[in-house]
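Q: Please design a sequence for this.
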């Protein structure tokens, strides 16, 4: 039984490495360094030209977990690239409800063909997801420890934490975000 578990564990690590190596070595990124939301399984081509913060953060967190489990520095450059891209999404304009949080994306994949589409895309790009900010906090917490000399990671982490405390947690629960265009499941709201 122990041997079978070891074999399954090795197979899981092999599969994880194969996926993470695709993102490290082959996956195209958008202009600020985020991964696109979807790629074709067969050839790795970009399938969805939008690059939201969440998917890149999930890839970064997976790389961090793999790194902690297996050791090494294979994914350090990729994780730094993700963290640096996330910093570019952080709202720094003082006095806004979203100040300190990260925005949804920089590149939507389309610029819109009419005023209504342009308005929607602009709102989407500037919306703030609580879930993605929680992911950003966790990832930047890891990056702050792994790369302690990079103070921008700890500063961004701290401002995201403040945003989560100040704006995202209201009435004893977390809100889904500010102007969230994507409707997230809220377990406290009856369907």
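A: Design:
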């Amino acid at each position: 039984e122990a041997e079978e578990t070891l074999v399954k564990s090795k197979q899981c690590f092999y599969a994880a490495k194969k996926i993470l190596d695709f993102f490290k070595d082959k996956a195209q990124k958008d202009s600020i360094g985020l991964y696109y939301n979807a790629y074709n399984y067969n050839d790795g081509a970009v399938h969805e030209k939008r690059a939201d913060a969440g998917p890149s953060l999930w890839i970064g967190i997976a790389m961090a977990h793999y790194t902690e489990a297996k050791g090494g520095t294979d994914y350090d450059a990729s994780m730094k690239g993700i963290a640096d891209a996330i910093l570019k999404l952080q709202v720094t304009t003082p006095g806004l409800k979203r100040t300190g949080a990260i925005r949804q994306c920089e590149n939507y994949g389309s610029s819109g063909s009419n005023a209504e589409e342009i308005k929607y895309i602009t709102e989407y790009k500037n919306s703030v997801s609580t879930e993605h900010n929680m992911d950003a906090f966790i990832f930047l917490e890891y990056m702050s420890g792994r790369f302690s000399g990079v103070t921008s990671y700890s500063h961004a982490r701290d401002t995201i934490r403040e945003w989560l405390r100040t704006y995202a947690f209201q009435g004893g629960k977390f809100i889904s975000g500010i102007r969230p265009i994507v409707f997230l499941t809220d377990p406290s709201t009856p369907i």
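Q: Thanks. Anything notable?
A: Residues 185-191 have pLDDT under 50 and may be disordered. The CA atoms of residues 115 and 121 lie 10 Å apart.
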